[in-house]
Predict the structure.
Amino acid sequence: MTEQVLTSWNEGPAKQAVLEYVHGATTPGPAFVEPADRIATFDNDGTLWVEQPLPPQFDFVFRTWEDEVKADPSLAARQPYKALMERDQEFFEGLATQEPKTVATLLEAFARSWAGTTPEEFDARVRQWTQTVRDPRFGVPYVELVYRPMLELFDLLRANEFRVFVCSGGGRDFMRVFAEDTWGILKENVIGSAAAYTYTSGKIVRSRELLGGLDLGPGKPEHIFAHTGRLPAFAGGNADVDIEMLQSAAFALLVRHDDDQREYAYTKGAEASLTMADQLGWTVVSMKNDWATLF
Amino acid sequence: MTEQVLTSWNEGPAKQAVLEYVHGATTPGPAFVEPADRIATFDNDGTLWVEQPLPPQFDFVFRTWEDEVKADPSLAARQPYKALMERDQEFFEGLATQEPKTVATLLEAFARSWAGTTPEEFDARVRQWTQTVRDPRFGVPYVELVYRPMLELFDLLRANEFRVFVCSGGGRDFMRVFAEDTWGILKENVIGSAAAYTYTSGKIVRSRELLGGLDLGPGKPEHIFAHTGRLPAFAGGNADVDIEMLQSAAFALLVRHDDDQREYAYTKGAEASLTMADQLGWTVVSMKNDWATLF
């Protein structure tokens, strides 16, 4: 098995732990996991793709808001448009820590941008973005900045009858546009923060309200349970907002960003999760040491 | 193909229409449906199992409420406990028509029964019910009153790369307890009305509020879109609360209850859907004529 799977992973404790878990889960014995219970869930930003300097969805949203400010310059005096125009990164980092006022302001702006639109309209905007906008540092579309080792992990898990889900604080409907082509994950296996929809006159239309809260922190196991009826057997994350999801899983994998040559090195927003990984024996993946190829 | 599939279906226009749709959806040509888009959704009560005199979940809930009235007799003066003690069927039929006050009263009682419980506690109660309680007319557990022709239809659809979902106004978590054994459908493919859950101290616990509204009428395509990111290619229902789901699908199948010998004959609650089936060319299944075997 080890020869043909996880080929972009270096030999080492992380790869070994993953292979051992999967072997145990699929082999009669004390670690066996019933096929129905083989749910694997992964965070997206920083776990499946680059999240520095900001998660790519911000780039998408900022372009929309810049268009809105052009159409209505009075918006520039208000948040979050003001922070956007001033490139106030600290303001947006308040989202990761769930600073309530920041979150409320952002959700209101999301609603202003998208309430009343159909999925077709939204999807077309996202597709245009994935096809035309490039990450400034790497010079490629953001969807090409997905970590190849994680896609190989999906393959390994699926080959062993795990169902792979993405569970991100980011927009569910944003991710669903590229999930099938980029991750090989069906839309219905993408869980994330999402607006409610109404069905009127034979059409699905986006509403103003968020349904089920942000998919961050405790929201992750809540969304996963609501969606699947289970908590995960295997979970992967990279940040403090993934802690509850990782805690709820039998096997937890934490990606550590320590490779400033090929990607970024930072622990900001991951301090508590790195400490817990130590305490609880989670498997920590060093991007620098454990991954031979990144993209 | 026709020899080995839908063996409990009589030859006739309904079976023919289903086979033709599936053949078209899977054959290059104008009716081809991309595998990713092959979503099939089915109502439960009256579509997959007997719903007369009341949907089986009521039997489960009534037993819980009877226990609660025994523990606190003062409840008997209030709805819905009063209606239960007086066997006031009309009161409960207000749920199917979404009479707002009835719905609110019932939801409040559901919350009183289950808020604060873990999935394990709830599942154990449902499992005890499926194993011990029998339908008074048929003398078997309710889960044995699933229509065999529909299970064969699931097999046919899955063999043709459709993903089969159940989408019911009934309780999502109630159905998930028996979905895998009874329908061969994974919990994550069960969509229904559901409470919110909170994750606290490492546990998922049921909260008081309903999340995303009742999965009835327009709520069906809304729940389906939220869960899968798509509207169905194939949908099956039997009542007016299924109309929007059937309208949202490329192929719609409506079960007509016209067999009072083997099951029940009634059109109550299905009048509008039967009229629409005529107007829109939906495939109507006569239980009496189209199904050789029922259970």
Observations:
- Chain A has a mean pLDDT of 95.
- The first strand of chain A starts at residue 39 and ends at 42.
- Chain A has two domains: 13-51+142-193+214-290, 56-116.
- The longest helix of chain A spans residues 56-71.
